[in-house]
Amino acid sequence: MDNLNNRDVEIELQQTEIAVKKKKKWWIIGISTIVVLVGAITSIFLLLNKGPETLVMDWIDAVENNDRTTAYKLLTKTKEFSFSQEDVNRFLDFLKESPEEWAGLKSNLKDTAKFLKERDKQKGVTPYSKFGYINLQYSGKKWGILDSYQLVVAPVQLKLTTNQDDITWMVNEKETDASKNESFFPGPATVKAVFTNEYVSLDNVKEVTLFNLQKDFEEVKIEFEIREVTLRVEEKDADIVINEQETGLKTDGNPISLGLLPVDGSVKVYIKKDYPWGTMKSDPIQVKEPRISTNFYSIPEEVQNQIMEQANDLIEQHFLAIESFDSSVITLSGDIHKKAVEEIYKKHQNRQVKHMYSLINVNYDLSSFGDPFYNNGDKRYEIVLNARIKKSEGQYFQGLLVHRALTGIQDLRIDLYYDEGAKEWKFEKVATQPYVAYDYVNSKTYVIRSEEEAKAILAEKQGAGNGDKQEEEKDNE
Question: CA of 471: how far to CAs of 354, 396, 452, in Å?
Fold first, then answer.
């Protein structure tokens, strides 16, 4: 019985020893596993967490290898400022084209990394940060264990000002609100101010470089030479065209406002008007001052010359009809003119007065062609051509020669109308009129003959050697 008890005790001791050995083995395995895991995690943390010098060199390598995606990802966005791959690409292009600026940025980042590494007991102390730059900064503990660093973009605010209201601002081809002083990525920036109204669109552009600045903003002022422009035109009912764009504005003979327009010569203004004989336009005016004026001849210059050349012949017919008491010599105008001439020479006949004429020159007022008048009653366009003639005149009274060659000046009114059926201007009548003041600068003179030739013609008409002893009389102009 005792042997059996001893055997049970022995077995129990053996089982206890085996259990202890197993437990000890598991403890060893567990501790080893923990050590391995800690080591692995630590290694992963160390790999994932870049020191300042490593971070800087990784970014420099990405830039120099044109790895734009990596260069973008290594930069830290903040709540205050976000950016895009496009912004980074533009900045990298700038660095590529600006070797001195790139060298300065690399040197600054390397010096900052060295500073942060050597002063590991003073975390949070960083060198002076620049604006329009990439700054290396200590950002605290990562996972509460490891030091963390960031490459932070230091943007620049743009303060945009102009001398005009209602300006649209564009920065790098994107519209921006000038009132918000928005921030922009470092590097070059194209700033455009756009002025637009219903007639014209004008933009002014400035190129700025937002890089390595000592302040967080850059002022950009763009001014426009824009004024309230007034157009003065004598013609009525003409359409006003600005930069080849119909405005819907019509002239009324008074100054008319064209609104705000640039006065730098970039805008051209002209007027046009439709007539039965075609559309007439003025020469374009470059707007270089607030008050401009223009006019145009409603009748083409070629047609004007034809009218004046025919008018020369008509004037000679007019005076020949009076001289000869015969209206049938008038072939360039109609019955209205002939009847008026008949009235004149009938009075001469009643007074026993006879005149002889020789035309010297004719001066036409070209402003007469400026704006034909539309006669609503006769449904036609009409013009009054003012002319000043110089002529030699001989006069008989009751058969006696009173003046052999009296040289004088006389103003005439020549009425014309446009015949839409025949598509030509026709003369209606010629009449004398009191002295008319018109612009001699804007006129054209036709010399018919010299004074000597005119006197010779009169002498031939009067008959040489008629025995009249009276002296010639001549009035000064």
Answer: 18, 14, 16
